[in-house]
Amino acid sequence: MDYDDDDHNDGGYGNEPEEDEMEHDMNDEEQEEGDGFNNKVDFNKPAKSNLPAPKAVAKEDRTTTPYMTKYERARILGARALQLSMNAPVLVDLEGETDALNIAMKELNNKMIPLVVRRYLPDNTYEDWEVSEMILP
Known about the structure:
The protein is an alpha+beta fold. It has helices at residues 19-22, 28-33, 70-85, 100-109, and strands at 55-56, 116-120, 125-130. The chain has a domain at 67-133: RNA polymerase subunit, RPB6/omega (Eukaryotic RPB6 RNA polymerase subunit), CATH 3.90.940.
């Protein structure tokens, strides 16, 4: 094998066309035809939806369980830890804790987290549960 060949150093791309050969500008007719769709979108307006807005269920008419799921717990702890890391006021007495997640866990165990869990239901309603009224996992 002779390494002095010209095609060795081009990485196997010697047969590619030059850049000016690859570019193809659309002529005026191609630009006017388009794809037949109106592609003008105003991103400042909210999207239209045919679905009705979800409705709240009264506190006394709630049907879901008061038990907090492990997924709700994880989301609550993460959200509260983020708030604490951004200098939100701590709602429990600290005993040397400095980690935001540990403080959030302590607040959750004392049911002091000021957040609400919203559970969406298949019948287009939702239930709001305060963290303080939920049973922890």
